Amino acid sequence: HAIATLAFDKIAYKNVVSNGLVLDKNGVKMSKRLGNVVDPFKMLPLYGADTVRWYMVGNAAPWDNLKFNEAHMKESQQSYFGTLFNTYFFFAQYANVDGFDFSQDRIPVSERREMDRWIMSKLNNLIADVEAALSDYEPHRGIKAMEAFLDELSNWYVRLSRRIFWKGELTVEKIAAYQTLYECLLTLSKLMASYAPFYSEKLYGDLNGITGLEPFESVHLSQFPVANPAEIDADLEQRMVFAREITSLVHSIRKNPQVNVKVRQPLARVLVPVLDEAMAQQVLAVQDIILSEVNVKALEIVRDGDGNTVIVKKAKANFKALGARLGQKMKIAAEAIQKFGNPEFAELAKHGKITIDVEGQPFELTSDDVEIRTDDVPGWRVAGNEKVTVALDLTLTDTLKREGLAREVVSRLQALRKESGLEVTDRIAVQMSDVLEWHEALTENKDYICNETLSNSLEITSTITDGHSIEIDGIQGWIKISR
Question: Which of 137, 251, 358, 372 could hold 363 in an S-S bridge, CB 3.0 to 4.6 Å?
Answer without folding.
Answer: 358
